[in-house]
């Protein structure tokens, strides 16, 4: 989860399973007394403070991107810099002529 952007369908499925278990302690489907989006609101707003998986995944990806961008002694930083952004840095690099997102 910290290195890959997970598909939207997986977030929905995991949150559905989590909500069913949270409300009833088992996997059968019953009434949910509060919307899961409301459960995932911060504690300071008076809700339960569960983390939303989509937001958590985005935060972990941003953390990894920041780590690769700022820690120049990492092997991954050096490989990516020489391959994808020679002559610039992580934040100002432009998309190449044939980028791969896989």
Structure description:
The protein is 48% helix and 0% strand. The chain has 102 residues and is an all-alpha fold. It has one domain (8-84).
What features would you highlight for this structure?
mainly alpha, 48% helix, 102 residues, 4 helices
List the helices and strands and how they pair.
Blueprint: H1 8-24, H2 36-39, H3 53-70, H4 75-84
What can be said about this structure in brief?
With about 100 residues, the chain is an all-alpha fold. It has 4 helices and no strands.
Gyration radius, in Å? 19 Å
Q: Please give the alpha-carbon distance between the first and last residues.
A: 15 Å
Kindly estimate the percentage of residues that lie in beta strands according to DSSP: under 5%
Q: Using the alpha-carbon principal axes, give the shape.
A: elongated
How many strands, which pairing sense, and closed or not: the largest β-sheet? none
Q: Kindly state the number of beta strands.
A: 0
Percent range for helical residues?
Answer: 40-55%
Order of helices and strands: HHHH
Number of helices: 4
Can you give the mean pLDDT? Answer: 79
**Number of self-contained structural domains:** 1
Low-confidence stretches: none
Secondary structure class reads: mainly alpha
């Amino acid at each position: 989860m910290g290195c890959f952007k997970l598909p939207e369908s997986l977030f929905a499925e995991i949150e559905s399973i989590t909500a069913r278990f949270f409300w009833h302690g088992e996997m059968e489907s019953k009434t949910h007394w509060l919307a899961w989006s409301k459960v995932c609101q911060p504690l300071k707003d008076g809700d339960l403070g569960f983390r939303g998986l989509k937001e958590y995944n985005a935060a972990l990806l941003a953390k990894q991107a920041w780590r690769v961008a700022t820690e120049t002694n990492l092997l991954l930083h050096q490989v990516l810099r020489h391959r994808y952004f020679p002559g610039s840095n992580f934040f100002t690099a432009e998309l190449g002529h044939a980028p791969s997102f896989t």
